[in-house]
Amino acid sequence: MRRSRWTERLRRLGPAVLYFAVVTPAGLCVRAVRDPLRRSRDPRRTSYLDRPARSFAAFRRAP
What confidence tier does 58 reach under pLDDT thresholds 50, 70, 90? Predict the structure, then answer.
């Protein structure tokens, strides 16, 4: 059975509407509650550099 043009348009429009109606507001709510990238300034911190978990000497050792 052949599909009509409207069926094809709805098949493409449906996911877009779902995305902008559900995913986008959810992301905005998460950003309003917390800062996932930690972009806000913290006056108590002396440095914003994250230290590596392991030392570089551990990488240089041969197995």
Answer: low
**Burial grade of 11 (CB within 10 A; 0-12, 13-18, 19 or more):** exposed
Query: Which amino acid makes up residue 50?
Result: D
- Amino acid, res. 63: P
Residue 48 to residue 38: CA distance in whole angstroms: 10
2 vs 13: CA distance, rounded Å:
19
* b/e sequence 17-41, b meaning 16+ C-beta within 10 Å: eeeeeeeeeeeeeeeeeeeeeeeee
Name the nearest CA neighbour of 39 among 48, 52, 30.
48
Return the percentage of the chain with pLDDT > 90, whole number: 22
Tell me the whole-structure pTM to 2 decimals: 0.47
